[in-house]
Write a structure and sequence with these properties.
The protein is built from twelve helices and ten strands. The chain is of the alpha/beta class.
Length: 313
């Protein structure tokens, strides 16, 4: 902030040299809140700064509002004003035509989007996904193999305990494998022979790895569904979406690169109204005015996400 003030101070000192009592500096202003608040009188950050400077230097000035920064820059180039104040992004094209103060506010683009709650089906749908079903079928297949091996080495020798028929013996072996894997340990079945203990002992070690991986996979599936809901919080979620953006080629190209549809707006208020009217799915704008308009309204229905998009000075 001090760098900006010192630059303007030097500039105003030069302008004030030889200033007559009737001569006034022509000051133009443009921009969005909170820098420029469009009320009956001039309010906002830039006016607070400028009034301090003008008071300290005893400057007389007139104020002229412009509908956009581009219009204010054009007026400065055409010598219709002496100074333009307001939140103006510094880029190479503008710097080639006019002089800027040092940047005094670092900012970036942010995303404002309505909260989109998941339906009940969307929350439970991972259970019916192919990945989840394949995992369950794979686990059942492994349990069946373990149950068959246990019946082969021990179950068929104790038919009174595990069942007289093959399918009964394999079923008892599967039950023992499940109880072993989950460490429930009911005690209704237990290996007696060395071969049976080898089979179930090996299964104990293997099941530790399988159970951990299986549970982790389920947890990841559900947490991913919960966290990555339909609410737009990143550029990657803009595919097929209509997005209100400033009329800057860079940001419009970034939206197109993720297969979104950019809709240019002149002010953050225009973009916010389009968002409220559901004409767009999200609004991307400079963080500061977007944060300001977001703080002035109901925060429950919207999410403001800062993702380091197009840093600006």
């Amino acid at each position: 902030m001090l760098r900006f003030l010192s630059f303007i101070f030097l500039l105003c000192s030069a302008l004030s040299t030889g200033q007559s009592d009737t001569e006034k500096i022509r000051v133009g202003y443009a921009g969005s809140a909170p820098f420029v608040i469009h009320n009956e009188k001039e309010e906002g950050i830039v006016f607070d700064i400028w009034q301090e400077i003008a008071f300290d230097l005893g400057l007389k000035y007139t104020l002229q509002e412009y509908p956009s920064v581009e219009a204010g820059i054009a007026a400065a180039k055409d010598d219709k004003i002496d100074i333009l104040i307001g939140p103006t992004t510094i880029n190479a094209e503008r710097a080639a035509e006019i002089s800027f103060s040092q940047p005094y506010y670092d900012t970036e683009m942010a995303i404002l989007a309505p909260v989109q709650e998941l339906t009940v089906w969307e929350k439970v749908s991972p259970i019916f996904s192919k990945t989840f079903l394949y995992a369950v079928l794979g686990l059942l297949l492994i349990l069946t193999i373990v149950g068959f091996l246990f019946w082969l080495v021990e179950g068929r020798k104790f038919k009174d305990e595990y069942g007289k028929h093959m399918h009964q013996g394999i079923g008892s072996g599967i039950w023992l494998a499940i109880v072993t894997m989950t460490t429930v340990g009911y005690g209704d079945y237990a290996p007696r022979t060395p071969a049976g203990r080898v089979v179930m002992g090996s299964w104990m070690i293997i099941s530790l790895i399988l159970a951990t991986s299986f549970v982790a996979g389920i947890a990841t599936t559900f947490s991913k569904t919960t966290q990555e809901d339909k609410t737009i919080t990143s550029m990657q979620q803009l595919e097929g979406k209509r997005v209100a953006v400033p009329d800057y080629k860079k940001i419009m190209d970034r939206v197109r690169n993720v297969d979104g549809t950019p809709i240019a707006v002149k002010t953050v208020s225009e973009g916010y109204k389009m968002l409220l009217d559901k004409k767009v799915d999200a609004l991307i704008y400079d963080e500061i005015p977007l944060e300001y308009i977001f703080s002035e309204n109901d925060k429950v229905d919207f999410v403001l996400s800062k993702k380091k998009i197009e840093p600006q000075y």
